[in-house]
């Protein structure tokens, strides 16, 4: 065993290291049928989740880490080839840089401070990301899976559920982390829908959904109008609803009605 490089959790990186092997194995076991596919672990930290992922013979594991100390620690463990440990920021690195056009499953105990951005980046890369399994702040995981009509239903709920089947798997208490976060965590699984919706572009849908939820207390008529979005062709009943009352399918239908050239 090589000398182990100790890694301190850094507050500015939102690091909370998982210190419970049972939880780590549950997360690793939540990946469904990777079939030898590439899995990219974001922010392996001390490697708590890395090890159970490496035990799965049905996937090829890579890791990306922004913290140099964690990189050194992983390289010293000799668990995986150094060329599969990428140093960099997942949010600013195109998947194609390391993986060309191959499919990549995303996994990780995600830093809370960037977890929503990881989901938006996944949406941007959805053609390349067939599945994501990860630990988020409990309320973020619940929001992603929530149905319309719920108070926590929002932009991410609509956008993720348009392209992925989202499932809240289990809750993780603070005490299994070092240092313990102030909140509970939730593990989430996204599986890309085999039938992707058509008739609108993602950027167009995103503009409409953001406009609707940015003023979520207003009716759709007022929220869209104040964002300069044309209301032509939308029925009066729909325009009288608030954003949280519309299902992802209703938003997709709106995106088809509000033609591309009317977008800001």
Tell me the layout of helices and strands.
Elements: E1 17-18, H1 21-29, E2 37-42, H2 50-54, E3 59-65, H3 68-77, E4 85-87, H4 95-99, E5 104-109, H5 115-124, E6 131-137, H6 138-145, H7 155-163, E7 164-172, E8 177-178, E9 185-192, H8 202-214, H9 220-226, H10 236-239, H11 248-257
Parallel strand pairs: 2-3, 2-5, 3-4, 5-6
Antiparallel strand pairs: 1-8, 6-9, 7-9
Helix pairs in contact: 5-7, 7-11, 8-9, 8-11
- Rg to the nearest angstrom? 20 Å
Q: Indicate the CATH topology of the largest domain.
A: Rossmann fold
Element-level helix/strand string: EHEHEHEHEHEHHEEEHHHH
Based on the structure, what is the oligomeric state of the protein chains?
Answer: single chain
Helicity range: 25-40%
Q: What's the total helix number?
A: 11
Give, in spatial order, the strands making up the sheet with the most strands. 4-3-2-5-6-9-7
Mean residue pLDDT: 90
The helix-and-strand class reads: alpha/beta
Could you list the spans in which at least 5 consecutive residues all have pLDDT below 50?
1-5
User: Number of DSSP strands?
Assistant: 9
CATH class division of the largest domain = Alpha Beta
Number of domains: 2
Q: Give the strand content.
A: 15-25%
Describe the largest sheet: 7 strands, mixed
Quick tags:
264 residues; alpha/beta; Rossmann fold; Helicase, Ruva Protein, domain 3; 2 domains; seven-stranded mixed β-sheet; 11 helices; elongated; disordered N terminus
Can you give a write-up of this model?
The protein is an alpha/beta fold and 264 residues long. It folds into two domains: 11-192, Vaccinia Virus protein VP39 (Rossmann fold), CATH 3.40.50.150; 202-262, rRNA adenine dimethylase, C-terminal domain (Helicase, Ruva Protein, domain 3, Orthogonal Bundle), CATH 1.10.8. It contains eleven helices and nine strands. The strands form two sheets. It has a seven-stranded mixed beta sheet, with helices on both faces. Strands 1-8 form a two-stranded antiparallel sheet. Helix 8 (202-214) crosses helix 9. The chain is elongated, with a radius of gyration of 20 Å. It starts with 16 loop residues before the first strand and ends in a 7-residue tail after the last helix. 38% of the residues are buried. Mean pLDDT is 90; it is low at 1-5.
